[in-house]
Amino acid sequence: MTETSPDAAAPAAPAAAPAKAPGLIRKSAVIALLVVGLIGVLLFPLVVEPWIVGKVKSTLAAQGMELVDGSELSVSMFGGAVTGKDLKVRETGQTAEVFTATTLNADVALLDSLSSGDVVIDRLVIEGLSGSLRRGPDGQVPGAPPEEPGKPTDWLGMGKQLLEWYKKYAPQDDGTSEPTEPGKEPAPTKPDEKVPAKPKPAFDWPDATRYEPQPQPGKPWPRVLIRHLSITGTSMGLPDESPFDITGFSFTGTNVAMRLKGDEVMDLKGDLTTKGSGPMALVMNRQGGKAGTMQLSAKQVPIEALSSKQISGDALAPYGAKGLADLLIDTQWTGWKQTSAVTSTLSKMSMQPDKDAGDLARQFASAVNAFDGKPVTWAPKLGGTLLTPVFTDTGMDSLTASAIDAGKDKVIDEGKKQLDKQLEKNPELKGATDKAKDLFKGLGK
Amino acid sequence: MLTLLKLIRGLLKGLASAAAPWQLALGAWFGVMLGFLPIFPSAGPSPLAFVLLFLVLVINCQMASMLLFMGVAKLMALALKGVGLSIGTGMSGFAQTCADIPLLHASHWSHTGWLGMTIMGLIAAPIAALGMYLFTRWFRTKVQPKLMEKRKLMLAGKVAGNGIMFKVGCWFMGL
User: How far apart are CA A436 and CA A415, in angstroms?
Assistant: First the structure.
């Protein structure tokens, strides 16, 4: 077959229409991408969701935990919702469950998360949460790094560590930083020095260097912000059995985050019931990470448990205090400077200080023991900083006034008892004893 | 080899086709960029490269031009690894800065080797695109009419010469 010249064979063509200018967008590719996207959406429950759930499981496995079979965890692509039902987490290979929750609902604000670089959770609701962090037979706390067996949990130390961490990475405030030594003025704040990226050898290119970002003061890692939080639970066992073991709790809050931006206001409210320390309530308000208030009330705190080394370190342990405390701690802070007022009514209180507790402890103990367990109000005030609080008012005035009242009551009670005894012996003195009792009443006023 | 020939034919057909010079130039730009940029190294995928790949699919650039230039640029990148590393090492400060910018860190700009390659790509891509644009215009205005004329004459039997080779050449270029 011979090739025919199109010019020779074809009849005279009409004048060619002007060629259409090519468009900027490849329409077929857009359609293809849409189809691929649609397939992706359809495959999401089959591919992506199991992958995310697998990630959650591997994260738990890294902590020595596993999700018990029967726990339902699902992820919804649209709206970024994570839902869970009958969630049970236990230590790998163990039978006892560390955490359980009947329902978990989390709505991730995807657009806000992408635009801000934070993990923004619009709503987090956990119901029926319970757990036990009780030490296992090996003395270790589930999910916690291994520690010296038999060593009690240092709650005060953990709180200080948390504050130290917060101080290191939280946004610095204006001129209210931690003084280097008690009594000294705080050093003027310096602009934060940027931590340079750390060079690391690049394993894919022997002579090259790869720089890794380092946590910077003020913005260490993406923060987690929970706009609406609601957690209700039934019980939470602490590592060491104590009257502070939680038997029920509920937390509600708005804009809950460790680090807050300047215009964010965080509110957190918590109610707890404990095994032997009565109900407790927490109300916290933080204004943009620079100022805040917190009220903590506890109605029936056993002083013996409060002054144990696990809770308050060595500060109160040598006093050997017993009794009940009705505590209200009202704290407010601006930057790192804080002022706190503690209102405590101590009842049925007695003290048996250690031999090496010191003279002051013994004097204090003899004064307290003289009250004979009558309610005493002690209202000290604290200042300084959140990391190193100092007593600005030891509350001795309130303690003295309370002691005088307690002493008066004791004298009146004693006097009445003696009069009653005399009346039993000499009934003809009834008129005189009534007058004497009236006199005691006047004294009481 | 066949794939390479197909690519070259696609490019030459593109030169002679209705594709606008900017499409070929854009294809060259994307190709050189993707040739020098890391796309999926062992440290993980580069989001910037994936954005470029997405744009290649959506924007109406000439695919053969893109693929051919990508191949050429990849070979050049392998040959110029040392040069790329020298450039990247010389820009260590910038690599350090890129480590703190999540998108650039994920795109391996904090890696002195890949940063050097990216810089080379950023320099070479506009040159290649401009070169391709000018070459296309020159080919279409100067070479293509002459070839068409000669082909017409050959078909009419008015010009002697190596007709088969010329025909193959014209077929290869889609003329």
Answer: 9
